[in-house]
Specification:
Layout: H1 7-12, H2 17-27, H3 38-50, H4 56-64, H5 81-90, H6 93-110, E1 124-134, E2 143-145, E3 148-158, E4 163-171, E5 190-192, H7 200-208, E6 212-216, E7 223-229, E8 237-245, H8 248-253, E9 258-264, E10 271-276, H9 283-291, H10 294-306, H11 317-340, H12 347-357, H13 364-367, H14 370-373
Parallel strand pairs: 1-5, 5-6
Antiparallel strand pairs: 1-3, 2-3, 3-4, 6-10, 7-8, 8-9, 9-10
Helix pairs in contact: 2-6, 3-11, 5-11, 6-11
C-alpha cells in the first residue's frame, strides 16, 4: 500500500503540533530564529534517535543522502552542522521538557488500564536515578568527582506500561534523596525506592500526603518493636512488626509507627528488611512491591542501550538537556504509537523496524508488524530485550 507518506512522517503525526506550537510561543522559542526553529530541531533530533545517528556530521551526511525526502520530514533544506550546533545551544531546553511531559500525560492515559501484576488498584511508582558519565574538561557545568563530570536522571516510573511520570535532570553531585523535595506526591499511590532514599523527615511528608512508601531499612537503624503480627515463616516472612524509631531527632522526624517486615528471599537466600507506612497489605505483597522496583533499573538499561543519550551532540547544559528530553519524547511517542495502533510487537522491535525503514512509504500499521515486514535489523551481541511492550 503506497500511502504517499514516509513512516517518519506518519510517526510525527502523533506529535501534538498545535500544543507544541503554543509551548514554543509561550517560551519565545522562535523569536529571532531564521533557520531551524524549535519544531524543526525536534524533527531532526527525533530522526537522529530513531536512526541511531551518533554525531552532527552523521546527521548532516544522512540527511544529505536523502535530500529528496526531506520534504516528508517537514524540512525545507539540509541543516548544516553549525546550524544544528547553534540550535542545540540556543533553543530553550524547557520547550522540549514541556513537550515530553505533554506526551507522558497522553501515554499514561493510554496505559492506565495496563496490569502491574501486583493485584493492586492503586498506582505504583518506582523511583531511582541513573548517572550518565561525561568528560569534566568539556562538561564543566556538571561536576561529579574531581576528575569526572556527570548528569543524573532522577526518574519516577509508572509501572503500568513503564512510562516515566516524572524526570528531573541534575548534575552528578545531587544526592538521590533530595529529589523527594520536588517530587509530586499522589495520595493513595505507592512509591517504591531503595534504601538510598531513607530520610525519615522526607518519608513522613509522603505519609502526611496520604501516599504509601516501600523501601529497605538501612543497616544499624535504631528502632524498637512495639508489637508483632503473626506470620507464616514457610512463606519466607520471618517477622511483621510495628516499630517506633529511637533517638531524639529521628523520632521527631517520624513520630508515628512504621511497619518493618523481615523477609528471606527464597531465590537468593538473602534476608531483606522492608519499611513501609502501609499497615493493611499482606507482607508478601509488600515484598512483591519492592521487587517490582527493578523495573526502573531495566528502564535505565533499556534507554541507555536503545536511545542516543550516552554520546552528546553538544557540550553545553542546554544542548545536553535538549538531547535528553528529545530522547524521552521519542521513547514516549513510540509507546503512544504502539498503543494507539494496538501493535503486539515489543517497543524494541518497533524501534528496530523504524531504524532501517524510516523513509519507506508504507502504512505504519502494516510496517510495524514484524511478521509481515521482515525488515528487523539483527540483534547485536551486546543488546538485550528488556521490555516486551
Amino acid at each position: 500500500m503506497n500511502v504517499g507518506k514516509t513512516l517518519f512522517a506518519q510517526v510525527m503525526e502523533y506529535v501534538p503540533w498545535k500544543t507544541f506550537g503554543r509551548i514554543i510561543d509561550r517560551h519565545g522559542g522562535d523569536a529571532g530564529v531564521r533557520t531551524l526553529g524549535c519544531a524543526d530541531l525536534f524533527r531532526v533530533m527525533a530522526f537522529s534517535q530513531l536512526t541511531w545517528r551518533e554525531s552532527l556530521r552523521d546527521i548532516e551526511v544522512c540527511l544529505a543522502s536523502n535530500q529528496s525526502k526531506l520534504f516528508h520530514m517537514g524540512l525545507s533544506s539540509i541543516p548544516a552542522r553549525s546550524t544544528l550546533s547553534d540550535a542545540l545551544n540556543q533553543r530553550d531546553w524547557h520547550i522540549y521538557h514541556a513537550l515530553a511531559m505533554r506526551l507522558i500525560v497522553r501515554a499514561r492515559n493510554l496505559y492506565a488500564a495496563e496490569p502491574t501484576g501486583l493485584e493492586l488498584d492503586a498506582t505504583v511508582y518506582a523511583l531511582d536515578s541513573t548517572t550518565i558519565d561525561l568528560c569534566l574538561s568539556l562538561f564543566d557545568w556538571a561536576p561529579f568527582r574531581s576528575t569526572k563530570a556527570a548528569v543524573k536522571m532522577h526518574t519516577l516510573l509508572d509501572l503500568r506500561g513503564a512510562i516515566p511520570a516524572f524526570i528531573h535532570i541534575s548534575d552528578g553531585k545531587m544526592g538521590d534523596v533530595k529529589v523527594l523535595d520536588i517530587l509530586p506526591i499522589e495520595a493513595g499511590a505507592f512509591y517504591v525506592m531503595d534504601r538510598g532514599y531513607v530520610d525519615f523527615d522526607r518519608l513522613f511528608k509522603i505519609h502526611q500526603a496520604g501516599a504509601f512508601f516501600v523501601t529497605r531499612a538501612k543497616r544499624g537503624m535504631d528502632a524498637h518493636r512495639v508489637y508483632s503480627t503473626k506470620t507464616d515463616r514457610s512463606t519466607g516472612v520471618i517477622c511483621d512488626q510495628a516499630i517506633r524509631l529511637n533517638g531524639f531527632y529521628v523520632s521527631k522526624d517520624y513520630p508515628e509507627h512504621l511497619r518493618r517486615i523481615r523477609f528471606k528471599d527464597p531465590d537468593s537466600g538473602k534476608t531483606l528488611v522492608f519499611l513501609t507506612n502501609n499497615t493493611t497489605l499482606p507482607p508478601l505483597t509488600i515484598a512483591a512491591l519492592y521487587k517490582s522496583r527493578w523495573q526502573v533499573e531495566l528502564f535505565f538499561k533499556w534507554i541507555k542501550q536503545h536511545l542516543r543519550i550516552k554520546r552528546f551532540l553538544g557540550t553545553s547544559e542546554n544542548a545536553v538537556k535538549t538531547q535528553i528530553w528529545c530522547a524521552v519524547s521519542t521513547y514516549v511517542l513510540i509507546a503512544i504509537v504502539k498503543k494507539e495502533l494496538h501493535l503486539n510487537a515489543s517497543l524494541y522491535t518497533l524501534l528496530q523496524i523504524l531504524s532501517v525503514s524510516i523513509f519507506e512509504k508504507t502504512h505504519i500499521s502494516c510496517a510495524l508488524q514484524p511478521d509481515t515486514t521482515g525488515v528487523i535489523a539483527p540483534l547485536p551481541n551486546n543488546q538485550m530485550i528488556l521490555f516486551d511492550f
